[in-house]
Structures are given as structure tokens and as C-alpha cells.
């Protein structure tokens, strides 16, 4: 005959853990877009399921902040609440990329205010390409700025770089169009929900981008735009996703400069196209050069070294055939930052045996994703 404990276990089985994707949607909604607490929550709990289970704890309140901790326990705010939403996204061809998805950009995992969930249309594999170059500038460019963006963007795309920009009017669109004309991938980062295009006049350009690249947003479909703040938040993602940032043309006080500030915060190199001293649209770029915050870029070849490009070998056809990252490659890349790290440190952080780690590092080096320095120390290209 069963005792009371066994009888209670049969009558009250433990509640099954919610699905991981639904937990990530719950956590992203609870913290809100652009939350500076995202990294703290991941550091404290490791993942969304663990955060869900600890939502009533003092540790969650300390990591997430009081407003988010209050939202975490609101009636109806549960992982299961997002099941129908996830199905609607799938039906509309919107890919949900939570933090632990293999296609989630590794570059975002290195910033404290990373989006815990991304929404994507198109092919997300380009999000982890090594030679990404941000191209930003004025929404009302001069003919000089348009030509500079077209020439630089086209030449960089042909050499194997992936152009990253904001799908906005002006020079953002010029960078995307340069890549599209060369039948090369480009990434659009939206400051509005993923099911919207702003400006609406760029809908056709967006469709062309999605055929060979992708469009991402941290704002879910079926939500309302958040106004100017959405574009300012978007700028940090352009900076984080880019190996380097090019400012083609910008006034001294403009939204473009917020992207520069983020790039500097993340330790990304900044380049600027020199312009006329008589043009208001070049005052911002010329100031960056004068103050030593940016290096001058006059032709695509000026950026080949920083992006690890080789004119003869880097072709779009080769990139199309590139194999996706393996789980071990993703694990090792997540441990390599802007500072060089040795094999022992990488082994300790990644948990991989030395032989497997060395083989993985060789693959990453051959694919152009990491650079081996003297003393077997590795750094991102």
C-alpha cells in the first residue's frame, strides 16, 4: 500500500516546464525592447526558462528591475500566452530568433542591452557573417553622398562584405540598393515592428533584400510603433551587428551620430567619407575626422584589411555556398571577443576538449571568422 507521499505524487504530478521559445517571448515582452537589464538577467539565470521559474524571487527583481518584475507576475503574462502569437508568426513567414537560436547574431550576445528575441524575414544565416559593414548617413543626401554610397557599397558587396543599414530614406537605402544591384546580401535593421516597412515607399526594396539577405527587428508584429525612440534603439543594433561603421554623409547634429556613439561604445572602428567644407551635410563627417573619432575612407579597398577581405577571393558565389556554423563553432565564437584569447582560456570558457577546440579554431580561421595571432592567441576578424 502506498504511503501518503507516493499517493500525493500520483494525484499531483509536477507541472511540465513551458516550451523554451514561449519562455523567451515571455521574457522579452516582460523586460521590453532595448532593456539594459537583459544581460543582467542572462548572467543571473542563464536562460528564459530559468528566469520564468525565478520570477517571484528577489534575485529576479534585482536583475530585471522593479517595473519588469511587476510585469512578470501580471495575470495572463505567462509563456503559454504567446503560443498563438508564435503560430501566427510562422504562418506569416516571420522567423522568431530567440537568444539561444543557432541563427541569432553572436554579435548581439556581446552587448549588455541585447534583444532577447529578434524577428526576421528573409534568410537569417547572413546575421553571422564575419565581414559586415554598417553604412549610414543623411536621409536627405546630396548627389555626392548618393554617389559615394553607391560606389562604396557596390564595391564592398562585390568583394564579399554584407552591407548593414536601417532601410530608411536616403543613404541607408542607397547602401542597400548598391548591394541589391550586385546581387549580394544585405541586412536591413528596422526601428518599427517587423510587419511594417518605414518608409512605405521602401516595400519593394525590402522584398529585394529578403530574396538575398534579411530584414530584422526587435519589435514584434501586431505591435504599435514606438516613435522616434524605435529608430534610436535600432541604431545600436546596426552598430553592434557591424564589424565596422561607415558614415557617408551627415550633419553635425543628426540621428546618424547616435549610431556612431553606439559603435564607439562597442569598440567598433568608425570611418567617414570626407566632404566639402561648404556642405552642411558633410559637417558631421568632417567633424568626426577632425576630432580623430573616425578614419577617412575614399574607396572600398580602404576597408578590406579591417573586414578581412581579399579582392580576388571574396566573391558572392563563394559566400552563398558557405556552410552554416556548427554548434561547436558557435560556442567558441561566443567566447572570442575584441581582446585576443589563448587556447587555455578558450578551452575553459567553451568547455571543449583541447583537440576538438583546436580543430574548431582551425575551421574558424580558414573560414575567415577568426585570426590567429602569435602565441596561439585568437581574435575576431
Q: Can you give me a brief rundown of this structure?
A:
Residues 96-306 form the Smf/DprA SLOG domain. The chain has 18 helices and twelve strands.
Structure description:
The chain is α/β, with parallel strands linked by helices and 381 residues long. The protein has three domains: 73 residues, no CATH class; 193 residues, Rossmann fold (3-Layer(aba) Sandwich); 56 residues, Arc Repressor Mutant, subunit A (Orthogonal Bundle), CATH 1.10.10.10. Helix content is 44%, strand content 12%. It has 18 helices and twelve strands. A nine-stranded mixed beta sheet has the order 1-2-6-5-4-3-7-8-9, sandwiched between helices. Strands 10-12-11 form a three-stranded antiparallel beta sheet. The longest helix has 17 residues. It is globular, with a radius of gyration of 22 Å. The N and C termini lie far apart (67 Å). Belongs to the DprA/Smf family. This is DNA-protecting protein DprA. InterPro entries: DprA, DprA_WH, DrpA_SLOG, WH-like_DNA-bd_sf. Pfam families: DNA_processg_A, WHD_DprA.
The CATH architecture category of the largest domain equals 3-Layer(aba) Sandwich
Q: Which structural class best describes the helix and strand composition?
A: alpha/beta
Low-confidence regions: 1-13, 316-321
Q: In CATH terms, what is the fold-level topology of the largest domain?
A: Rossmann fold
Shape descriptor: globular
Gap from first CA to last CA = 67 Å
Mean of the pLDDT scores?
Answer: 89
Keywords:
single chain; alpha/beta; disordered N terminus; globular; three-stranded antiparallel sheet; 381 residues; Arc Repressor Mutant, subunit A
